[in-house]
Each structure stands twice: as C-alpha cells, then as structure tokens.
Amino acid sequence: LPGTALAQRDAPMYGLVGRIDTVPGQRDAVVAALLEGAASMPGCLGYVVAEDAARPDSIWVTETRDSRDSHAASLGLPAVRQAIARARPHIAGFGERFETVPVGRVGLSRPGRLA
User: At a CB cut-off of 8 Å and minimum separation 6, what does 42 contact?
Assistant: First the structure.
C-alpha cells in the first residue's frame, strides 16, 4: 500500500492499547499530561490519545513502539515520569489493556492535540 511502512519480521514492533478512566470532569487534564510527556520518547513510532465516545470520563491510549524494550525504558524517562505524576491524581482507574504486534503503520499529519 502506498504510504505504509511495513515492519520487518525479524524485528517486530510492539503495540499497546489501553483505556484510562479519569476522575469525573478531569479527562482533559489527563489528556494534556499524557500528550506533553510523550513528545520525545525514543523508539516511539506512534502515540495517540483519544477520547472514548461512549464514556465521558475515559480515554484510550494507542502506542506503537519499535520494541517492547523501548516501551519499558520510556517509563523511566524524566518527562514521562513527570507526566504520570501530573496525571495520577486525575485517574480513577484502568480498563482494558491489549498488547499487539503492529505489522504496518501510516503516519499522522501532525503531533499534539487535534482540533
């Protein structure tokens, strides 16, 4: 497919999709913290934070990484740790979590919060 980057089978990518439930009325605070913390994560091929259309206090995070190890390493980065600390008081809990093996991707047009 034009515009699609296919993963090499000898180096599988790592994907993670998870739901975060926020304290009522605090979804925007969690979204802002997560987007700020993800700005420069090494090994990150894609990071999308989306509002849940059916749950007004839930978001979904979809992450594509070059490896499982780069995902684990990202949790120790100062910017990520600061983002987690800012978001934590506004998080009520976590919902479903799915690990995936991405086989292709198409890039987003721009980083940051979409209008």
Answer: 70, 73, 74
The b/e string for 72-97 (b: 16+ C-beta within 10 A; e otherwise) is eebeeeeebeebeebbeebbeeeeee
Helix axis angle for 27-37 and 78-87, nearest 10°, is 180
Query: pLDDT by residue (tens digit) across 36-74?
Result: 877 778 888 889 999 999 999 999 999 999 999 999 998
* 72: CB partners within 8 A, 6+ apart: none
Alpha carbons 44 and 13: distance in angstroms, whole number = 10
pTM: 0.81
